[in-house]
Amino acid sequence: MGCELDFRSGLGVLISLATGVGSSLSNLCIVLTQYGGASQFQVGFIIAFGGLIALVIILLCKGIGLLPDLWKDRIIVLANGVIYTLCGIALFYALPRAPLGNVITIVAAGQPIFTPIFACVLLRERWRLIDIVATVLDIIAVLLIAQPAFLFGESTNTTPEEAVAYTLAFVASLGLSLCFVLGRLVGQRVHPFVTTLYLNLVSSISNGILMFAISKPSWDFDYTVWLELLAVCLLGNLNEVGRYAALKLEFAPTVVLVQNIHIAITYILEVTVLNEKATTLDIVGATIVLSSSMMVAIVTWWQNTRTKRRLDEEAELQSLVSKDN
C-alpha cells in the first residue's frame, strides 16, 4: 500500500507524457507538409492562426478574459510569444533538412540543460539530484547524436546542411527552455489558454508577414497535405495548452525531462513512416534520453504521492486533535 502511486499526484507527469506523444506526431506532420510543398512559414501561420481563432472562441464562451490582469504578466506572455515564434521558425527550417530523430533529440535533450538554469535564476526553483543526473545523461546523448567534429573527428558523415539544422535545433532548444520558465512564471495567475493565445497571436503575425515577404505563397496543395496541416494545427495547439497546464502542476525542469519520451516515438515514426535509417549512436543517444525521462517521471510521481499522503495524514491528525479539544 505504501508504494502505490496516487493518480492525482501524477497528473502533471501524465500531461507531460501526453504532450510528448503529441509533439512527436506533430513534428512528423510538419515534415510531411513541407515534403508536400508547404513552406515553413505557411505551416507556422496555419498552426498559429487556426489556434488563435479557436482559442478566442473558447475563451469568450468560457467567460475568461483575453488579457492577463497584471501588466507584468501581459509583457511576459507577449515576450514568450516572440521567443517561441523565433524558435518555431528555426525548428521548422531545420526539420526537413536533417534526420527528424536527430533534430528532435538535440532540441529535447538541450532543454533539460538550460531549463533548470533559467528556473533557478528566475523562479528560484530547486534542482533535484535526479534532475542533475538526467541532465548529464542528456548532454551525453546530444554529443552521441550530433557527433561534433572536435570529438568524433572530421570523418563524421554530417553534411553542411545538416550542421546548420543541428545548430538551429540547439538555438531552438535554448529559446524553448526560456519559454518553459516564462510559462511557469505566470502559470498560477494566467490561464493556459490565454498564454497560448498570445503565443499564437505573435506567431500568426510574424509567419504571415514572412510568408508574403519572402515569396508569393501557393495554396494549391494535395488533399493529403491539407489533412496533415489540419493535424499539425490541432496537435500543435493541444500540445501547447497541455504543456502550460503541466507547468502549473510541476517544476519546469520536471516537465521538460518527462515529455522527452517523444524522442523514442520520433525515431519509431522516422523509421516506419519516413524510411530513414538510424545509426547505432543515434539509437543509443535516444535510448539514454528516454531512460532519463522515464526515471524522472517515476521518481517525481513517487515523491508527489509521498508528499500528498504526508499532508493528508497531518490534516487528519489535526482534525482528530480539534475534535478532542
Could you walk me through the main structural features you see in this protein, from its secondary elements to its overall organization?
The protein has 325 residues and is mostly helical. It has one domain (9-324). It is 78% helix and 0% strand. The chain has twelve helices and no strands. It has helices at 11-35, 40-62, 71-94, 100-122, 129-146, 149-152, 160-185, 192-214, 223-247, 252-259, 262-272, 280-324. Helix 4 (100-122) packs parallel to helix 7, helix 4 (100-122) runs parallel beside helix 12 (280-324) and helix 11 (262-272) runs antiparallel to helix 12 (280-324). The protein is globular, with a radius of gyration of 21 Å. The model has no long low-confidence stretch (mean pLDDT 79).
Structural class estimated from helices and strands: mainly alpha
Query: Which overall shape is indicated by the principal axes computed on the Cα atoms?
Result: globular
Query: H/E element string?
Result: HHHHHHHHHHHH
Residues in helices, as a percent range: over 70%
Termini, distance in Å? 31 Å
Number of helices: 12
SSE order and pairing:
Blueprint: H1 11-35, H2 40-62, H3 71-94, H4 100-122, H5 129-146, H6 149-152, H7 160-185, H8 192-214, H9 223-247, H10 252-259, H11 262-272, H12 280-324
Helix pairs in contact: 1-9, 1-10, 1-11, 2-3, 2-8, 2-9, 3-7, 3-8, 4-5, 4-7, 4-10, 4-11, 4-12, 5-12, 8-9, 10-12, 11-12
Keywords:
325 residues, mainly alpha, 12 helices
